[in-house]
Amino acid sequence: MLLGTQRINDDGIVEIGGCSAVDLARDYGTPLYVVDEQALRETCRGYRRAFEARYPNTHISFSSKVFTTMAICRVVEQEGLGVDVSSGGELYTALSAGVAPASIVMHGNNKSPQEMEMAVAAKVGRIGIDYLEEIDAVQRIAAAREATVDILIRVAPGVDADTHTHIQTGKVDTKFGLAIANGDAKEAVAAALRAPNLRLRGINCHIGSQIFDLHPFAEAAQMMVDFAAQLRAEVGFTVEDLDLGGGLGVRYLPGDAPPSLDEYAETVANAVKAACDRQKMPLPRLILEPGRSLIGEAGTTLYTIGVVKTIPGVRTYVAVDGGMSDNPRPALYGARYSALIANKAHLDPVTKVTVSGKHCETDTLIVDLEVPEPEPGDILAVQTTGAYNYSMASNYNRLSRPAAVLVSDGRAEVIVERESLEDLARLDRIPQRLRAAGREALS
Ligand SMILES: Cc1ncc(COP(=O)(O)O)c(C=O)c1O
């Protein structure tokens, strides 16, 4: 499986954005996150085109949590997208990148007072309200600043998307948002309308992630419009913004066949238009917040293979120089990936291996990967790591978080530096009382 601008060159080496994976590994070290700029830009354009053709009043917002870095924010903003954030850190990153505050939507299911303050002070375009008490909290902050804040109310529409339970987020039983079914969402809307410094602009939902079946998107759109109609009839509020979140799936394995952007846009646009028609409602502005489907396939992680350990009759373990610290998703929810040996991409597979990391855990990255004969020093390219990899990385075992490079037209540029050993210990402090000399060294 080759994605985006990936190709195999005459030497049998994988190239991404015109850069040889072997050269990238040599020049920047491994593990290395590689972002295919052209693939990312094309997906941004694809999203815009797909909706402009079917529902012109659409705002596409990059869900920055999937790969929160300043350079990526710059690329998506250049492509005319907004950015959504869900913490003070993500907001800080987007603002530092120069993203226009008015094109930022601030989400978060448990925002701290500081985060709310930061969002109001920055004058972000919308704040998504996730729970009832947040209305008073944001109202107080807005009043103190004599500001008017545009808000959305996050709704749990009660849609079960067919994906891993950890990434189903639109059910009734969810920590996110206010349920339509038990009246919480309507109560929040009424409370927001009473708040003098808040301007309620609409409602938002997000039903889950890595969804291949289009039906739940249509169902959510319809339920949201039906709820909007109920609000108009019962509290006299007309929804201007209908934010349906993200959720579209991507290809992790060669057999994966997610819907195209056109199919997705067709489904969502038709569902919104049909429901508005049925409810005799004006068409709202549509907001979509793709994350994984915008950048997932544009990311590749390069590793260097170290130990190759064959247990006869059982399996061969191929250990790489990263693992659950740069990609926790397999350990977290059994996520599956495909990969190829980047310097042997022209050779046919001859064996099945289990790719594991270097952590003090059984941090399996890929089970039963078919590859040519693996050897220490080979470069393994794991596909589709552009979403929820860098942004979920940790320093477990005090591994440095990898660098990230943006590649395009044969040029590679660092967008995140590799952490140094000094970076790892930078925030450590030794209390004075622990400074006294301890035992002698082992003899
Ligand atoms: C509110 C909201 N919008 C958008 C997204 C992005 O979802 P995805 O990466 O599946 O497109 C998320 C993901 O958690 C989210 O919570």
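^ pyridoxal-5'-phosphate complex. The mean pLDDT is 95. The CA atoms of residues 278 and 415 lie 48 Å apart.
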